[in-house]
Amino acid sequence: MKIETELMRGAGPMAVLQLLERGEMYGYELVEALSKQSDGVLAMGQSTLYPMLYNLESKKLVASRVDKTGPRPRKYYRLTPKGKTRLADGTEQWKAVLNVMFSLGVVTPDDIGKAVPKGATA
Amino acid sequence: MTTPALPAPDDFPINSYAPSSKRPVEEQAHVTSDDASRRSHYAILVDASSLPEEAGKLILQTVRQTRLTPGEQGCVAEELIAHFADGLEAEVSLDDLIGQFGDTKTTATLIRRAKERCCPKPRFANAAAQLGLGLIIATAIGSAWFMLYFIAPKLQ
């Protein structure tokens, strides 16, 4: 299932920030993690991911470093303190939205259970 | 990634150089120094990456369309090269990787906007410095011309 652009605009950066909370990651790692852990729902290509990462970097929510020790240079992204604050705020907002969706009957607890892909970690 | 050394072999004419990943990597690095100076830094990085030709073309097209500074273009190219190389290493097919890439023009525009947001001040300062330098040079040339053609003959 593909998510509409407007929804992705809000969910994409939050998902990236959440993944980076676990530790620094490089572009392809992020793409793979997003695709696997969202069962393809939040899968994004380079055309979405890299501009999004540069945007997050410009807002100082993530920082990057280039590692040149491997076979090819890799740019690793990590969460900044400002990014952690934004992630915490965003999480609260998503919870509020989800609660409203529950009370409106747009989603039910059963829907959430079905939507969580196998192997996804909380 | 380090840019390969660029020797100037006599057996490799400048005009015959064309980027192609079908040529072995050693041969791709076998570029004359004149040719290398004419090619942009990111194009040399792509050629040296040994990525398949289609992927290289896609990266070149995207990076060119960003119209960023040469340094920024190099950084973006390195990241995209690493992405494709990681994907191919993970045994994702080239067609899938290219399919996931999206439209090059849209990607380039989005990257440019994001990078401009990233560092607007240096960009503005750079443009202002270039304009200032241009004005100084124009004034100097104008003054010299005025001195040579109007003031110097009168003094004689």
Q: What layout of secondary structure does this protein have?
A:
The complex is a heterodimer of chains A (122) and B (156).
Chain A: H1 5-21, E1 25-26, H2 27-37, H3 46-58, E2 62-67, E3 74-79, H4 81-104, H5 109-115
Antiparallel strand pairs in A: 1-3, 2-3
Helix pairs in contact in A: 1-4
Chain B: H1 25-28, H2 33-38, H3 41-48, H4 53-66, H5 70-89, H6 94-101, H7 104-118, H8 120-155
Verbal overview:
The complex is a heterodimer of chains A (122) and B (156). With 122 residues, chain A is mainly α. A 3-stranded antiparallel β-sheet of chain A has the order 1-3-2. Chain A is globular, with a radius of gyration of 15 Å. In chain A, strand 2 and strand 3 form a beta hairpin. Chain A contains 5 helices and 3 strands. Chain B is an all-alpha fold and 156 residues long. In chain B, helix 3 runs antiparallel to helix 4 and helix 3 packs parallel to helix 5. The longest helix of chain B is centred in the C-terminal third of the chain and has 36 residues. Chain B is elongated, with a radius of gyration of 22 Å. Chains A and B meet through helix 2 and helix 3 of A and helix 5 and helix 7 of B.
- Report the count of strand segments of chain A: 3
Major sheet characteristics of chain B? none
Largest sheet of chain A: 3 strands, antiparallel
Helical content of chain B stands at over 70%
Distance between the termini of chain A: 21 Å
Give the distance, in angstroms, between the N- and C-terminal Cα atoms of chain B. Answer: 63 Å
Strand order of the largest sheet of chain A: 1-3-2
Q: In angstroms, what is the radius of gyration of chain A?
A: 15 Å
Tell me, what's the shape of chain B?
elongated
Described by the principal axes of the CA atoms, the overall outline of chain A is: globular
Radius of gyration of chain B: 22 Å
**Poorly predicted regions of chain A:** none
Describe, in short, the structure shown.
The complex is a heterodimer of chains A (122) and B (156). Chain A has 122 residues and is mainly alpha-helical.
